[in-house]
Amino acid sequence: MVSGLKGQIEGLSPEALIQAVALSGQSGVLTVSFRQREGRIYFRQGKVVGAETPERQGKEAFFEILSWQDGEVSFVPKEILSTGELGSVEALLMEAATHQSEKGKGDALSVLLVEDSPLAARTLSEIIESSPNLHLLEVLSNGEEALWAAAEYNPDVILLDLNLPGLTGSKAFKYLMIQHPAPIVLTSSRCGPEGLSLLLLGATAFCKKSSRQAEHLAQLLEKAARVRVNRLRRYRLPVREKPGRESSSRPGNFTVILSGIGGFGEALEFLGQKTWVPEEAVIWVVDGCPELAEDLAEVLRERLPWETVYVKATTIVRGGTLYISSGIPAFKKGPVLEPNGDPERFWNAMEGCVETVVFSGVKSVDVKGVCPGKIWIRDPESSPAPDLPGSFKKLAEDSLKLEDLIRLG
User: 361 φ, ψ to 5°?
Assistant: First the structure.
């Protein structure tokens, strides 16, 4: 290494700089400046003999400097008199990785990212690392690595790409759920039949690869990490033929389904068992995964007896049809559905018999002024994601006074 090397860390990690100095076998001081903080690592003949930052000395200072991912760096060759040694560079770097992992788990929710595309991995890593509530444990490029990493780290949540080389994302998911169960969020350019099958096998959520990922991925992972994976199970959705009759022009009754992160399998199984009625319109509000609703509408068209419509524009409501929405839609007399409605007015605009079915993970759907009718609520005691909107919690508390309140176990 040349004398008096100075520069800015850009595309080169502190680990790489330390390894370069160690390989050179030189003595000197590596100085790293990061956000008005300065740290020094002392080398004697390529071995680390000391480290310091304003608050720390020795190994703790070494670990802190390694966590600085940008800044300015300089190396000044000079004779270092110390005869001690903090440890070999290889051992110190391994210990630092363990230290950072444990620190992350203590301070935030730990995330294991499995993604084979370097560009996608970088984008997803930046989103995860930018959240103060998430800690990225490691980025892995295939399913085999995911299995040993899950055993090693015991992550709070796994973000798993469906399209992996070798052991595919689908197979890796199944092995993970058997050997090292954890909340798993799937990611791909589309959900498709494969993603649907894994939601039925207990996948917690799905995040579509798109320009909108940065808006919701961090919050999605935080919610997914709190799902009680030991309460997830396999759900069934049989393929059902379309009825020979045409849909009714105007619905006489409605079923509203609410489901969120951890509750998609429950809702799918419910739809698989529900009887098709030509006079009934079904409205499914998919909460927590903003771009999942459109993919579900596409893949379910061939699996369910209902005509299936994704609510993305003004839509006339007909009986015998399933409407899937990314949030509470606007419901107007006519009847007409539009995206982005007012929860307080949604139920009141429906005429006829109304049933509301509440599955796991819908805390962020704040429902006020629920109209009288039959209300099914997933039992929080057995639910993998027991969060319920405040208004439904109140109904549950008053259940002895509401004869129509039925709780699903």
Answer: 80, 30
